[in-house]
Amino acid sequence: EVQLVESGGGLVQPGGSLRLSCAASGFTFSSSSMSWGRQAPGKGLEWVSGIYSNGNKYYAESVQGRFTISRDNAKNTVYLQMNSLKPEDTAIYYCATDEYWGQGTQVTVSS
After folding, report:
1. Model pLDDT for residues 67-80, shown as the tens digit of each residue
2. CA atoms within 13 A on the CB side of 109
3. CA 18 to CA 37: how far, in whole Å?
4. What stretches of 1-111 show up as alpha helix (H) in DSSP?
């Protein structure tokens, strides 16, 4: 059974940082591409970032230069380092692989 469990969300002031983690199980993590997406209140799901099994990384324009995706194949975990956070980054953040999604973790950026 594929499981994706996000953690690391919380409340942070504008300009602050958070690191999200996604622990994966039930599939061959090292050979799988992983993604992060988010859904802001009242809006649709937005793709944020992706990392392939070869380590290539991709970002949405809205987070380019502020967010960094990484993976640790030994721990079956993908991370999203978020710096210079803005109020518009407030959303539930999900990790995903293929058609599988985690339950999400809330990120709130507010003073």
Report:
1. 999 999 999 999 99
2. 18
3. 15
4. none
